[in-house]
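Handout, page 2. Input:
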Amino acid sequence: MVGWAIAVHGGAGVDPNLPTDRQEQAKLLLTRCLNLGISALRSSASAIDVVELVVRELETDPIFNSGRGSALTENGTVEMEASIMDGSGRKCGAVSGLTSVKNPVSLARLVMDKSPHSYLAFSGAENFAKQMGVERMENDYFITEDNVGMLKQAKEANSILFDYRIPTSGYESCGVGTVGCVVVDSQGRCAAATSTGGLMNKKVGRIGDSPLIGAGTYACDVCGVSCTGEGEAIIRGTVAREVAAVMEYKGLGLQAAVDFVIKERLDDGKAGVIAVSEKGEVAYGFNCVGMFRGCATEDGFMEVGIWE
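Output:
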């Protein structure tokens, strides 16, 4: 038996001028989600069930960039993606290109549990969602006024807005941040899940790191990892898997592994990482201005923060 641990994130890279009330809204949501996970862990829920539960809650609230409140494509639509991984046996499921599924992380879980595959995308993923009978919504449900305004800004600037670039004027969003959760339960089982709407003004069909096992999400016997930030850099650095790899092959501890990967594997990319180990440890790191995050352990430690 080990002590359980949990961490959540809501995106890396935060505008230092983000209004205080927006910061507080984000921290309240992270605290609520942490407490939801803590309550489940105290009731002996498994790591995989807890990461799904917590990410569902994050997807349902429009504050961050996943589910309702997802970033918009160049066409003003949402294309959501998510992945989930159970460190016990390295089972995983992932989805991309979702336009109607209320909770993408739960469809990823169903891909893992109820299909012979690891990854389904676009029309195939939508058809699977219909077969599974998951809750689906019209595309309008996912679109917020804030994000319509941010898309307009991005188009006017002829740019793509990354997770870590939040406009300082006009339609301020509480954080265009990917969400994720990592958990180790009292049995020492690790799990991770990540969900996102991707980049604001992204090309239709773009796939980021969040649904890619080994890039945005990874779990094994040793640890569980979820990433956020510049997806292309996270993909190139296979960041989530690298954290596990340096623990396995270099013998680094959890925090040292996170620090090493942030420093050595992102090149010029900006990102953040949350992680737990099978020993009941929790760690995080980021190389940009701030990361919406929270973590807690069975011994009573709890922290919710944004800045260094």
